[in-house]
Amino acid sequence: MALLTDLINLNLSDTTEKVIAEYIWIGGSGMDLRSKAKTLSGPVTDPSKLPKWNYDGSSTGQAPGEDSEVILYPQAIFKDPFRRGNNILVMCDAYTPAGEPIPTNKRHSAAKIFSHPEVAAEEPWYGIEQEYTLLQKDVKWPLGWPQGGYPGPQGPYYCGIGADKAFGRDIVDAHYKACLYAGINISGINGEVMPGQWEFQVGPSVGISAGDELWVARYILERITEIAGVVVSFDPKPIVGDWNGAGAHTNYSTKSTRKEGGFEVIKKLIEKLGHRHKEHIAAYGEGNERRLTGRHETADINTFKWGVADRGASIRVGRDIEKEGKGYFEDRRPASNMDPYVVTSMIAETTILGKQ
């Protein structure tokens, strides 16, 4: 008799040309990911060749019950690391039947900014450092922490090894490999300062693809933690007290910052970001005020400052960038629960289009 795992791992290409496409979209909270699967007659590599689909928006907080249909537009395709073969993951955004983007569709406005000729000419690159916390499923307490108690103080956990320092590495490594398999430009992982907290980096990615890749990387992480019986939290300050919060530091460069003389351009772009500090903070994630306190490697939420190698700044420039006179800078303000479509497009809008 076949085991469940045998059936899950069936190679469909042995018997049929049909493939499974898992359509992924963002739900009504702006952070909850949803997905459902559709059978296709054969392999597809171009999202424009995929059919649109629909779902019940009244069950995701995105439409009223009397007019509940929301339409999914396929936007990006990735290989499916769970079903493998020719099966795919499809990142979608959501529209009304009349073709209008629904309020939680932040991709649509981001795509407009990235398609602007001035933005496209600058080829904005992003590298996003996604921090997250692994929680025990039944008690919602960090993985590896004693129930109702606390581990030793921060210090030995950042990039630490050993059963008393690193909790959940099998999940982290599984996620790393699954993202590489999927075609996501994941560039690394590391254990973070608070035990049970980890980070993965996506990028460099150009324009709208940074948001697509980060959302699908989050989706894959949620699926893996589902299998492992662990909960992943993107809360920017999951544990109150003398513990680091969780951010999504966003590294950014343009064609002008990457060429000779780019450091002077970086200074001008940072100045532009300072003029819109409040607007950026408002869009950089819910609950960020609990994280941006001026402690635990953050700048105070009401203060804008930048510095070279300063992890207590709003914007950090690396020592090597200063030395080489060109490169990128890091916006350290975004929270771990930020929407990458919003953050990446807003940075481009402020620095390239000069929105005040």
Write the layout of secondary structure elements.
Layout: H1 4-8, E1 19-26, E2 33-40, E3 53-56, E4 69-79, E5 88-95, H2 107-115, H3 117-122, E6 125-136, H4 169-182, E7 186-191, E8 197-206, H5 209-228, E9 230-233, E10 248-253, H6 255-258, H7 262-275, H8 277-283, E11 306-308, E12 315-317, H9 319-324, E13 329-331, H10 340-351
Parallel strand pairs: 1-5, 11-12
Antiparallel strand pairs: 1-2, 3-4, 4-5, 6-8, 6-9, 6-10, 7-8, 10-13, 12-13
Please characterize this protein's 3D structure.
By secondary structure, this protein is of the alpha+beta class. The protein has ten helices and 13 strands. Strands 6, 7, 8, 9, 10, 11, 12 and 13 form an eight-stranded mixed sheet that branches. Helix 2 runs parallel beside helix 10 and helix 4 crosses helix 5. The chain is globular and about 60 Å long. The relative contact order is 0.13. The model has no long low-confidence stretch (mean pLDDT 95).
Main beta sheet: 8 strands, mixed
Structural class: alpha+beta
Q: Tell me, briefly, the overall form.
A: globular
- Specify the helix fraction band: 25-40%
Share of β-strand residues: 15-25%
Q: What is the CA-CA span between the terminal residues?
A: 66 Å
Estimated radius of gyration: 21 Å
Unreliable spans are none
Tell me the total number of β-strands: 13
Tally of helical segments = 10
In round numbers, the mean pLDDT is 95
SSE pattern, N- to C-terminal: HEEEEEHHEHEEHEEHHHEEHEH
